[in-house]
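Exercise 3.2. Students should predict the tertiary structure of the chain below and write it as structure tokens, then compare their answer with the key that follows.

Predict this chain's 3D structure.
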Amino acid sequence: MTPPPVPGGNPGTYEERLAQWFLEHTFFLDFVYRNQRGKGGKGELADAVVLHDDIVLMAQIKAQSSARPAHQWAQGAIDEALRQLQYTNRMLFGGVVRDLTSATLGTIRFDPSLHMRRYGLILVAQDAVTYDPGSLVPALSGLPFPVHVLSLADFAMLTERFDTAAD
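Answer key:
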């Protein structure tokens, strides 16, 4: 694993690094691809892509730094993350992005035929009361792959308890 991230930086940077660190805790550094480049090496493919066996986990992390009401912010953030996950899926499974770079394994060739199971993960870092993400963003249920929305705090607890990918 990389060292735990230090708070600070631009809004959302710490939360993104923290979520990536939690992914490394469960899936190990070898299989967590942080901030990969998108089409033509430009933009960002995803905050994190995890390859484990025949599974691809595509992750987007959003952190609230505005004074907007929590539900209003969450609706916009989840909607944006959903669009980003759709982009990640198109780039990977459409053969546009073929290479991913691991901190330990170097560049690997992504073969969509080896990763038939795909999941989206949206992590929201905010202080909010409980809400149903599906009622805020009904499009969550309209994708060809499941998308899970969790608070960063809940995700931290899950990765602490389920600390190996097999869990």
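Discussion points: The helical segments are 13-27, 70-93, 133-136, 152-161. The chain is about 30% helix and 30% strand.
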